[in-house]
Specification:
There is one protein chain. This protein has one domain (34-117). The chain has helices at 6-33, 38-72, 79-90, 107-117. It has 118 residues and is an all-alpha fold.
Length: 118
């Protein structure tokens, strides 16, 4: 047999395109599914937007707390805030104060009011 048979020539001609296609398929697959692929990139972008939102909320909370702390300093002491904090810490109230208890459910208040009405 000679090495120039048509089947062998066709195989030799097909080897290079098959190898090139295999290499391209490998790189395309890993550029989409790989550790640093497009799918991972998109999920990281979603995570970055979530973390940015948490950062904004935390920064706003911190600003409010800093303002609150500043109002508690001796040089900027607000008498109303001091009075409010003292009453809350000591659990006391002025005799003229109207106290409104706040809780999640009002079912017990409604039943107590109905019992008082009867």
């Amino acid at each position: 047999m000679s090495s120039s048979s048509p089947v062998i020539l066709r195989l030799r001609q097909a080897v290079a395109p098959v190898i090139a296609f295999t290499v391209m398929a490998y790189f395309i697959f890993h550029s989409v599914e790989g550790e640093r692929g497009l799918l991972n990139y998109w999920s990281m972008q979603d995570r970055v937007s979530q973390i940015t939102q948490v950062l904004e909320e935390t920064t706003e909370r911190r600003k409010l707390l800093e303002q609150h702390v500043l109002s508690l300093r001796a040089s900027h002491l607000d008498p109303d805030l001091l009075d409010e904090r003292a009453r809350a810490m000591l659990n006391v109230a002025h005799p003229d104060d109207v106290i409104i208890f706040h809780h999640d459910g009002y079912s017990d208040v409604i039943t107590a009011a109905a019992a008082d009405a009867n």
